[in-house]
Amino acid sequence: MQNKSYKVEIYVTMISEIKKSGGKKMAKKYHVVIIGGGPGGVATALSARNTYPEKEILLIRKEKTALIPCGIPYTLHTLEKVEDDILPDASLEKNKIEVKIDEVIGANGRRLSLKSGEEVEWNKLVLAIGAKPFVPPIPGINENGVYFVKKDINYLKELKERVEKSQRVLIVGGGFIGVEMADELLKKGKEVVIVEILPSLLPLSMDPEFGKMVAEELRERGAEVHIGVSVKKIGKGPSVKEVELENGRTIPTDLVIVATGYRPNLGLAEELGLEINERYGIIVDEYMRTSKKDIFAVGDCVAKRHFLTGKYSKLMLASSAMAQGRLAGSNLSELKVVKGFLGTLGTFSTKIGKSAFASVGLTEREAKSSGIDYVVGTYGTVDRHPGKLPGVSRVFVKLIFARYCHFLLGAQVKGGDSVGELINMFAVMIQRKMTDMEIDTLQIGTHPLLTSSPIVYPVINATVNAIIKWYKK
Amino acid sequence: MQNKSYKVEIYVTMISEIKKSGGKKMAKKYHVVIIGGGPGGVATALSARNTYPEKEILLIRKEKTALIPCGIPYTLHTLEKVEDDILPDASLEKNKIEVKIDEVIGANGRRLSLKSGEEVEWNKLVLAIGAKPFVPPIPGINENGVYFVKKDINYLKELKERVEKSQRVLIVGGGFIGVEMADELLKKGKEVVIVEILPSLLPLSMDPEFGKMVAEELRERGAEVHIGVSVKKIGKGPSVKEVELENGRTIPTDLVIVATGYRPNLGLAEELGLEINERYGIIVDEYMRTSKKDIFAVGDCVAKRHFLTGKYSKLMLASSAMAQGRLAGSNLSELKVVKGFLGTLGTFSTKIGKSAFASVGLTEREAKSSGIDYVVGTYGTVDRHPGKLPGVSRVFVKLIFARYCHFLLGAQVKGGDSVGELINMFAVMIQRKMTDMEIDTLQIGTHPLLTSSPIVYPVINATVNAIIKWYKK
User: Fold this and answer.
1) Do A68 and B434 touch (CB under 8 A)?
2) Which domain holds residue B57?
3) Shared domain check, B166 and B208
4) Which of B75, B443, B460, B473 is most worth mutating to test chain A (most A CB atoms within 10 A of its CB)?
């Protein structure tokens, strides 16, 4: 639907442009044109600059300023202003990437028509056109007082103002963005309600026992957490005053924030005639090449398969987008970096209250539903040693190994701030197909003020816990 | 010298034992006997328990309580009491490892004589007999008021008392232990002098630019740092009052702490007739097997070669000792874990003032002196994003890659507390022979409150910095 009106709009604009220019229009030529200014677009631009030190590279984005996507929840409280979450253009400027604040409204061969009336020509085109919030089919969802998590600075400013005026906020969706917003609103002293349709929080990235820990962190600070229940109706206009759940319960609220995931932006891909999967995004090969020569796509707009299961994955992450962007930027002409992106791995981290949570690869639930024969290893300890040192947090690690080939398939962690880097160590292990035995004899560094003791180092001890089970089988 | 008197002592003891028992003595039999209660001994014991769920395992150590070696500097100030640095016996008890507080004073075939008069017999013997402080040949080094960093609780208590009474402390040696002690003494409000013979602090594990940062952290807080100069003389007795440097300078002090490295304990290895290298330790193969059947050795007492250069390495680290211990414990009978220890990697981390420092693999200096053709990549940024978030630290990463085979060879980092885990990610990369191109397209996780932004993630950006140099060569 949306798509048709989009095409009409382009058509009208193009006609008027052609008229204005007397039917012929000069187009500025660029070697590389990238559409989209998020992490995937920026990574592609910087990487393309390394590949082509001398050629002209253009990045077109709609937004005057680009936002750091994962910083958006923190604009509600921790960051004073939404503007503090801006992705600076300094690295683009330094690398002589031309930036146009404009919108592509039409495409013809190697020529793009922009909203400003300008036209540009490309040799290599990269789509990094991102995703838009998914709008669940709930009656009342378009009511005044219902907000989505859009990557739009003015919209977010309005949301922030609205939050200031609200006493009670209900969040639909208990994924990362939902729980991060709940955490921010609690810090702000608001009354917070969170509703998740699946049976635990963070359902896509962590197993239920971790979801439970997150719920406890939120409940302890006064949040109302409803899991395994969907929203039936948002009422009553003109501004929202209550939300009705499927179980019959009615919850009063001053504001609703919907954080139920994203869907790829596909309008321009259709316009260009690219192959797409309506649900997951633009079809690309492992070099980020679309179905049309010299057109690449990266990031949230791209259909991704999971690194381990090979199935389509719903995950949309800046880190995957950037890995794809660096790969595309390196390989625009010849293949410099061979087989770089072998599927999305899903490396997350977040902080709720004083605890950090992180996950990479498969959860136990995913392993089970993918029919994988796995062994679980767990270990809990403290992240400083001896435990009497200041700044100690409890850390808990859960690992999933393939029973027969012994590869590490997934890791989930709760702990202190260092979990943010700990999870990346696991990400390296999975990407390099490390086995339990290799982790068992790994040489790591430890320090009293920075890590767990070598004797209880949880990465190795959780692995040993899995090995013992495997021995006994 | 020491060794001869040791043999005489054993001889006398054995004779008297034999007399006492009428020439025959009952020995309790154990499947595995481990000598030494440090990290290497404990790791071997726990791992051996997994290998032999039912058999008798004995761990013999001299010390009533074992200390956490890397926690020792923190007994000076951060930990209230030296006893707070104890390695708890809980995991040994839980795993039914018998612990004897005793000393091995003689060995005959598969029988060991203990100081208590007891004798024990082993099927598999593991030496984890550690190291002792190196005593540099400086006149006055045995003066009252000169302390070493011994793993001995009563000695350390005495040192702690002595520190309390001193206003001014001079530390000989600017390696990790030296700078950590300096940091602790500064926190305690003492006047601190540190003297390092090599041209920068942390000379074995970090390049001079990092040594300089450490010196700045200490100097800013009032420490006197002397580098590239040796100590000529410690005077004047009966208690130390001043230290004379090779450059003629005389420095007054109330106390001297010598932290100039360790040498392997070898007496018992000689007694057992094992092959040894006098400087580096007991000779073992890659399964930690000594030159005698069924005798293994792990940890500081073992001669280690560097993972990358193959040369003998001076490094003595709990993390290497534990990797060796887990390997030895798994492989006491059949080889369960194949080729597990391929040389010592040297993964360190520490915290000086508010900054953490860490290193793994080769420094640039070592790469150069080993004749390796390398490329350096560096990157500096902040470890939260956006940079306006609270708790931000600057982070600086230096990476060394092999120019032709592209493997990561070394990493050095200065930053906030998460550096403790970041360095372990690099340790995994080196052990799994990851190349620059693989790191370039790595999928990592980032979070505003926990890590750098994906766009400036220093692990990848330092790698890209190296790749660009390599392209241009």
Assistant:
1) no
2) 2-62+102-132+263-330
3) yes
4) B443
